[in-house]
Amino acid sequence: MSDECDKTGPLWGDLAVEQYFLTNWDHSSAETPDQQRKRLVAEFLDLKLIPAEWMTNCEGDPLLIPPREPSIEEIKTILRPYRCEKLRWHADNIYTGELCPMLLRTHYSNDEDEKKRYDEMMEKWTNGEIFGDEAWWAVLDDADIFNFGSNWRRIYDILPEVSYPIEFRCIIKDDHQYFARYIELYEYSEMRPFFKRDLAARKESDPQAWRDDRDSVIESVGMTMQSSATTTYIFIADKEAFESGRPRVIYLDGLRRIVREGRIDPERDDFGSIISLRMTTYELLEYTTLDEKYRVNGEIGKELYQLTEEDLADP
After folding, report:
1. What pairing do the DSSP bridges indicate for beta strands 102-105 and 139-140?
2. 220: left (phi over 0), alpha (psi -120 to 50) or beta
3. In whole angstroms, what separates CA 97 from the centre of its chain?
4. What is the tally of helices (H) and strands (E) in the chain?
5. Please, what sign has the CA dihedral across residues 152, 157, 162, 163?
6. Distance, CA of 120 to CA of 107 (rounded, Å)
7. Low-confidence ranges of the chain (pLDDT < 50)
8. Strand residues in 188-300 grouped as ranges (E)
9. pLDDT digits (tens, 9 = 90+) for 156-199
10. Quick check: 121 and 107 in contact, CB under 8 A?
11. Is the pTM above the cut of 0.85?
């Protein structure tokens, strides 16, 4: 990847993934450097707790251990080959705006007329209320870097910081400070009684809807639980977005699993209204589709809702 970029990243070693490289690099590995970097990025993405000193200035804080400064050789052989300065700049400025997500453009046309039209659509999308003020850091738009087509998840390989929670929680563990990227299912125990209270009320108020489609009622009431599981979300400007005028919105949990996703209805919403909804109420876009894993009988849904026979009984 070329370093011919118009934006410059922070000092080497200032980014959390770079500290993970330095801490875990195996100079005796049989892997090629590229293979080892790819493996370490995958491991970094799966970290549930990130040492706080990798993410913030730790001067004077007894709970933080100053991160290690890389040597010139480590910069040359381990860090610099990973990605260009423009990506390091994005990594350093990610989620600068309060509760504002990223917009990732993954489709670029070689046709000049289409290119002009698509660029105009991007400008319209990014100049709106709220998002327009954050576009300087939140828009990932570069055909040389982000031309992923339908495989938008490739962004995690080169910019794993996109997986960060928009709002990190700080925890203390073993006298050390960490940022938590994932909400464990047991942490929903205080919220679950309120969900079940609301579910019982909905069941009693509309028993016919319950009998017609019980799971839909549960999953509708359960949007409060789904919202709490959501740690970040992202807008995708893919081929369908440009053809239909409807960018994709994806809500994700701390392990990059989709909670809900859908296409923005331009008659009802734009980026600004969706961001405002999340900022003010923490709600998710109601006409998005719940992922199978988060459904009533899904792998995560069963643990999230923890429904009993009494909860599931007809009114």
Report:
1. parallel
2. alpha
3. 14
4. 16, 9
5. positive
6. 14
7. 1-5
8. 232-237, 248-252, 258-263, 289-290
9. 999 999 999 988 888 898 888 899 988 887 788 889 999 999 99
10. no
11. yes
